[in-house]
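Q: I'm building a small set of examples for a reading group on sequence design. Run inverse folding on the following structure and report the sequence directly after it, with nothing in between.
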């Protein structure tokens, strides 16, 4: 079989199954693992897939989907992630929540935790916590991105610095997390706030549905070493989960 035909079949497989493994492809085509790696590297350079530990995965969308679209995607999985993440929060803590739909699922489970302080730059998080009288809610203002419903820019960074707070935990969202590329994001304007939240927090928890595990975006947020725990869906790629754990990250599959 010619290399071009083999690569076409590989691309069909990764589009169908979301991920492929070098060992399985080598056995299927009767070629060496190094040959398959070359095929995957060529497809990766053409932006047709994303190389991952032991194989490859489908690339994430070339843009961040609008908030309304993301709100309905992977809904049940995000609810499980949010409910589990809430069990990590203790009464009396001060936490910072990223914006985004998965963090909103978490926020709804925080409403009855006593003496909790929540700081956020997500307008949807503020809405989710409105009326939760046991929770002290602090909104970090700035320039509102209507697409993501998040406040950002220089004004938001200045506002966060002005509070002079330190956090027990930061719950961060991202476009992708992968063993070889760390934590990444498509929205460049959000990255400085995410990094600042990480710097100010004792424990960093990344919330990401399974489709984002093994995915890579253009903007770099943080290396794996800065993230203590990932909460994701049980359908996350096994090879990536193993690689993330090998890098020292706790991974909770829900």
């Amino acid at each position: 079989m010619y290399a071009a035909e083999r690569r076409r079949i590989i691309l069909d497989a990764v589009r169908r199954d979301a991920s492929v493994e070098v060992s399985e492809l080598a056995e299927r085509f009767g070629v060496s693992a190094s040959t398959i790696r070359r095929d995957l590297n060529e497809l990766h350079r053409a932006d047709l897939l994303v190389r991952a530990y032991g194989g490859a995965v489908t690339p994430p969308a070339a843009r961040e989907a609008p908030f309304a679209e993301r709100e309905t995607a992977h809904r049940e999985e995000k609810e499980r992630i949010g409910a589990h993440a809430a069990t990590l929060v203790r009464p009396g803590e001060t936490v910072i929540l990223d914006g985004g739909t998965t963090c909103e699922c978490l926020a709804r489970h925080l409403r009855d935790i006593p003496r909790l302080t929540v700081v956020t730059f997500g307008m949807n998080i503020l809405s989710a916590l409105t009326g939760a009288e046991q929770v002290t809610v602090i909104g970090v203002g700035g320039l509102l991105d209507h697409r993501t419903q998040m406040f950002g820019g220089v004004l938001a960074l200045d506002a966060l610095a002005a509070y002079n707070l330190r956090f027990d935990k930061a719950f961060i969202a991202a476009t992708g997390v992968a063993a070889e590329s760390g934590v990444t994001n498509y929205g460049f304007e959000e990255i400085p706030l995410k990094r600042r939240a990480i710097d100010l927090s004792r424990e960093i928890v990344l919330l990401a549905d399974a489709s984002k595990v093994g995915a890579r975006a253009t903007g770099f947020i943080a290396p794996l070493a800065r993230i203590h725990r990932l909460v994701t869906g049980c359908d996350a790629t096994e090879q990536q989960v193993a690689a993330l754990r090998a890098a020292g990250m706790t991974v909770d599959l829900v």
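The two ends are 41 Å apart (CA to CA).
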